[in-house]
Design goal:
CATH class of the largest domain: Alpha Beta
Number of domains: 4
Helix content: 40-55%
Radius of gyration: 28 Å
Order of helices and strands: HEEHHEHEHHEHHHHH
Largest sheet: 5 strands, antiparallel
Distance between the termini: 78 Å
Oligomer: single chain
Strand content: 5-15%
CATH architecture of the largest domain: 2-Layer Sandwich
Number of helices: 11
Amino acid sequence: MIIFVFCIIRLYNFINCRTIQKLLNLRLNNMRAEPSKLIYTTNEVAIVEDKSLYLDKRLECLDKGFVRLVDFMGDDGAIVQAARVSYGKGTKSVREDRELIRYLMRHRHTSPFEMVEFKFHVKLPIFVARQWIRHRTANVNEYSGRYSEMKDEFYIPELEQIRPQNKVNRQGRASDKLPTEKAMEINQMFEQTQKSLFKEYKTLLEQDLARELARINLPLSTYTEWYWKIDLHNLLHFLRLRIDLHAQYEIREYAERIIELIRPIVPMVMEAFEDYTLNALTLSKQELDYLNSLIIKSKVKDDKFADFGIKGLEAIEFKEKLEKFIK
């Protein structure tokens, strides 16, 4: 009897092993046939299936510039995967992927966002590059005016962007436009100066002056190029500052194009970023005290939260904020 039971168990294990092996072979064959297709998934978020759909997409900026996505690593799924390693087992059944990403964004748990990286090829005026490079948490390799000749490419603003100094914001332009004739006159001055300086640059090169010296009189409107690699956490910080209306128009144009490039890759992150950062406000204690004086506590009803998309854990957190806020 014991021998009979032993033989039945061996036969059962053998059949199971053959079945599993067939399934594995089928899966491996599918992966070989479609090497760029999806390999890892979660219940809610899928890793990008084919990176080539997003790479080398070039978006024009200003008159001669562009932003091009060269490469990226990770997406929404990579953030969820990294976060669950941090939180341990069991969290997947508590928070769905979208809710988890929103929780991370809401509470500024930034480490999982650092698991995603983007590499861009950017062509931009030097004065924009000087603002951009202030964000030091990135890797940059720029076109060299020492090794190569500078190109005859300069930024000239559109007429509607040629404006007077803002009287309140001392580092920005006003919303008022200059008269068209005045704007055209300034536009021509820009162009004439650029042509004159580039002609001088070429003359110095013809006289065998070193390129590193010949370039030093070229204007800040000269276009340069670089490769710029940054993780998603620091990229979102860059976007928060450079898409703000107080940022210079020219760099805002680049920030908006970057958002267009990364949104299809990290759609849940961008949704949370817009909800909790771009379209959110930070208030001081004094501002909160003033608002508190205007709110009638009896009119605050938590059963209305869902009407505004505030549900689940987020609704609980919002109620706790209100309890602290409304004294």
